[in-house]
Amino acid sequence: MGKADFLSPKAISNRIKSKGLQKLRWYCQMCQKQCRDENGFKCHCMSESHQRQLLLASENPIKFMDFFSQEFKNDFLELLRRRFGTKRVHNNIVYNEYISNREHIHMNSTQWETLTDFTKWLGKEGYCKVDETPKGWYLQYIDRDPETIRRQEELEKKKKQDLDDEERSAKFIEEQVRRGREGKDEVKFGETDSHLQKEELGCKEKKKSVRTDNWLQPDIVVKVITNQLGEKYYKKKGVVKRVQDKYAAVVKMIDSGDKLKLDQSHLETVIPALGKQVLVLNGAHRETLAILDSIDEKNFSARLILDSGPLKGKTIDGIPYEDFSKLA
């Protein structure tokens, strides 16, 4: 019988079968050859090329198994990293996508007998986080790229700083509510007995009461505390670009770069890390640069070291959180 025509149904069917996945038991990993049926696989096993590959493998079988295991592991992890990132995913989902490639390394040529064994090995070696559930094994890729680790550390640091600011604000509000209930008047931080004595004696160097109800200043970092603008800006930080009518400011958001016009009642000050420069916003040292020396969380205040003006180098205690802010 002559060879089937190129466009005949049989020829087309044969070409379709040759492109698709075939049964694993008819695949020779040593020769990387897929046979269509049992008869073809038997013919291949008796072929001269297959016998030569067997002789080569018999000289060092561990070397060949290690090679296939390494290739399988690398390809599997590359697919997991590229396709799923660091998301938690069922191991069968990843494996089914991996074997959809006709040229993949077959697991029966590696050191692992089952997918479960391979999944456990990935967890033991620290390539993935793995956990077993009633639905099977799940894995999560661990990205050890230095750049990725650096970005994650920056995000964690930013989250921690935001959390610290929120905790300080919450404690401050609680303290203000408590004082209001007790009927106490607001205490001006930084007042000392010696200062009161000087005021009583009419000393020339007495500090004037320069507290005002507006505190916005250009180039300070502030945080949006209103959710009327949506979650995009809520609890996000920005820099005051200019002050308008004392009580409003044009703020450029740090994350998005958007410019917003906000009232000071919708903003709060930002406390930087110790040793960073701040601007005093109210009180006797208003508009004076200072260095944040320490924080008194119990009294919601800080100790500052003046960094400009005639009193540069002087330490002032008990400055409330709302009387100073981080500089951009």
TrEMBL record:
Coiled-coil segments on the chain, per record: 149-176
Main location as per UniProt: cytoplasm
GO annotation (BP), single: DNA replication
One cellular component (GO) term of this entry: nucleus
Keywords of this entry: Coiled coil, Cytoplasm, DNA damage, DNA recombination, DNA repair, DNA replication, DNA-binding, Metal-binding, Methylation, mRNA processing, Nucleus, RNA-binding, Stress response, Zinc, Zinc-finger
DNA/RNA-binding protein Kin17 WH-like domain segment(s): 52-178
Keyword Coiled coil: yes
Domain of life according to the entry: Eukaryota
One Gene Ontology term of the molecular function aspect: zinc ion binding
Cited Pfam families: C2H2-zf_KIN17 (PF25095), KN17_SH3 (PF18131), SH3_KIN17_C (PF25092), WH_KIN17 (PF10357)
Compartment list: Cytoplasm; Nucleus
Quaternary structure and partners: Associated with DNA polymerase alpha, RFC1 and cyclin A, in multiprotein DNA replication complexes. Also associates with replication origins at the G1/S phase boundary and throughout the S phase in vivo.
Function recorded in the entry: Involved in DNA replication and the cellular response to DNA damage. May participate in DNA replication factories and create a bridge between DNA replication and repair mediated by high molecular weight complexes. May play a role in illegitimate recombination and regulation of gene expression. May participate in mRNA processing. Binds, in vitro, to double-stranded DNA. Also shown to bind preferentially to curved DNA in vitro and in vivo. Binds via its C-terminal domain to RNA in vitro.
Protein family according to the UniProt entry: Belongs to the KIN17 family.
This protein's name: DNA/RNA-binding protein KIN17
Organism: Scleropages formosus
Phylogenetic lineage: Eukaryota, Metazoa, Chordata, Craniata, Vertebrata
Recorded name of the encoding gene: KIN
